[in-house]
Amino acid sequence: TVGAVACDQDGNIAAATSTGGMTNKKWGRVGDSPMIGAGNYANNKTCAISCTGSGEFFIRGVVAYDVACLMEHKGMSVKDASSEVIHKRILDIGGDGGLIAVDTNGNIAMPFNTEGMYRGQKSSNGIDDVSIY
Amino acid sequence: MKTFSIAIHGGAGTLVKGMMTPELEAQYKLALQNALDAGYALLEDGKTAVDAVEEAVSVLEDSPLFNAGKGAVFTATETHEMDASIMDGKTLNAGAVSLITGIKNPVKLSRDVMEKSEHVFLAGDGAMQFAKELNYKLKDASYFYDEFRHKQWLDIKDTDSFQLDHASDKNEKSVAERSRSQKDSKFG
């Protein structure tokens, strides 16, 4: 699965996600990647999110929207909300993976709870980083 | 001018600990940097966040290293089924496609669903029909063939196992063990 989130010069945000699914999948199995609210979500009130991980758990956890809800209803930062979802809420139901998120101020969060994550971030305030965790 | 930024992910690693060589790591990092730079360049140029995420994901889809587009994994029937989605935080418009095949850049099709249809989510044959009406050129199976992906599939074909494109140690073992026990079970 691959994905991107961005905040543009006008403070508008967006998210995109794309995947080939799972090796040897059958029965027309679909994961969270194309599901708005589960693997992908963007709302200028809160954040833009793209997820990667065990799709069935991310669907059941409505993960992307869950992060946005924590920001909107509990006033959490994008970093705290996405960390809460990946390190607590999704783990509680057995899900592993991670997400990338950006808010309308260009702040980025990239939490994950399993190894082997490929990530990159770049910002007009000087951040430019590509890492494999 | 407000702070603008972009973040990308290439999924969660197919290569578990110990399998990543320095050469391969350099290839992954270069592909990620290219995607990041492509998206960022659009933002720097004053383009929208939607343009930037579509571009960055397209670059990743064009790489065989990641499980999307060209690097998509094999299904149980040795085919490729791809899914993609995009959402615009300003308008709350969204587009998604699922179970599509032969499309070079599924994310572009998802954007077309968002902007050129009255729907949010198109799947399977209907999504392919939509792509054809927009004159998408279909790539044949050889474009999506990758030896590593094929080996991944051969390891678990004819079993009921499936494999995520990421693997914690725990997960890898369970997949391998499941796969082995199911293959052995054929011999009593």
Helix-strand sequence of chain B:
EHHEEHEHHHH
Topology, number of strands of chain B = 4
What is the overall pLDDT average of chain B?
88
Give the uncertain stretches of chain B in residue-range form: 167-188
Oligomer: heterodimer
Compute the separation of the termini of chain A in Å: 16 Å
Computed structural class of chain A: alpha+beta
Q: Give the strand order of the largest sheet of chain B, numbering strands 1, 2, ... along the chain.
A: 2-3-4
Beta-strand content estimate of chain B: 5-15%
What is the mean predicted local confidence, pLDDT of chain A?
A: 96
**What's the helix count of chain B?**
7
Level of helix content of chain B? 40-55%
Our Rg estimate of chain B from Cα atoms comes to: 18 Å
Q: State the low-pLDDT regions of chain A, or none.
A: none
For the biggest sheet of chain A, the summary is: 4 strands, antiparallel
Proportion of strand residues of chain A: 25-35%
Distance between the termini of chain B: 69 Å
Largest interface: chains, residues each: A-B, 76 and 94 residues
Summary tags:
heterodimer, A: 4-stranded antiparallel β-sheet, two-stranded antiparallel ribbon, B: alpha+beta, 3-stranded mixed β-sheet, globular
Outline the fold blueprint:
The complex is a heterodimer of chains A (133) and B (188).
Chain A (H helix, E strand, L loop, with lengths): L1 E6 L5 E7 L20 E3 L4 E7 L1 H6 L2 H12 L3 H15 L4 E7 L4 E2 L7 E7 L4 E5 L1
Antiparallel strand pairs in A: 1-2, 3-4, 4-5, 5-6, 7-8
Helix pairs in contact in A: 2-3
Chain B lengths: L4 E8 L9 H23 L4 H13 L20 E7 L5 E7 L5 H11 L4 E3 H10 L7 H4 L2 H10 L12 H17 L3
Parallel strand pairs in B: 3-4
Antiparallel strand pairs in B: 2-3
Helix pairs in contact in B: 1-2, 2-3
Question: How would you describe what is shown here?
Answer:
The complex is a heterodimer of chains A (about 130) and B (about 190). Chain A is about 25% helix and about 35% strand. By secondary structure, chain A is α+β, with helices and mostly antiparallel strands. In chain A, the strands form 3 sheets. Chain A has a 4-stranded antiparallel sheet. In chain A, strands 1-2 form a two-stranded antiparallel sheet. Chain A has a two-stranded antiparallel sheet with strand order 7-8. Chain A is globular, with a radius of gyration of 14 Å. Chain B is α+β, with helices and mostly antiparallel strands. A 3-stranded mixed sheet of chain B has the order 2-3-4. In chain B, helix 1 runs antiparallel to helix 2 and helix 2 runs antiparallel to helix 3. Chains A and B meet through strand 1, strand 2, strand 3, strand 4 and strand 5 of A and strand 1, helix 1, helix 2, strand 2 and strand 3 of B.
